[in-house]
Amino acid sequence: MILPIVGYGDPVLRKVGENISEDYTNLKELIQNMYETMYNAYGVGLAAPQIGLAIRLFVVDTDPFSDSDDISKEEAETLKGFKKVFINAKILKEEGTMWSFNEGCLSIPDVREDVSRNEKITIEYYDENFKKHTEEYDGLRARVIQHEYDHIEGILFIDKISSLRKTLIKKKLNNIMEGKCSPDYRMKYYNKKGR
Hints:
Belongs to the polypeptide deformylase family. By secondary structure, the chain is an alpha+beta fold. About 25% of the residues lie in helices and about 30% in strands.
């Protein structure tokens, strides 16, 4: 089932997510709904706060990036078929050179900004079968994971841009809160009249 994506301004996007247990109500169905919602909005990642749940759960599928002309063949291979569920994730280490990439977010439609992140991460998480993993990722896979991980920490990508850039996008952010934007997917707006 495709769920509405929570728009910028909703307090759930600023909450630190709670850990969940393997008997979390309808977990398998929730994960499936998150993937459907993400694919419907042409996203490569979606975190539970973006559908209104303040829990430590996010999904990623970097396959769409594997067709990009802007990346090396080697990186494209790592992105192809990289589809994962992260439950109760904890980034243990962020290292390597900081690099900039133009990011967007389904909760903040029509806003894209260059964000600097470390090139490599070590993350501990449970998969959808509650099997524990500790893995290292780099490049775009690490970036997508860091972006979604920020969501379960109550952080948005626009928190990582300069004050000047924030000032320049302020009107767009206010418009999103008021529902004055029209992405081609369902959204739930925080300040929309008649809510």
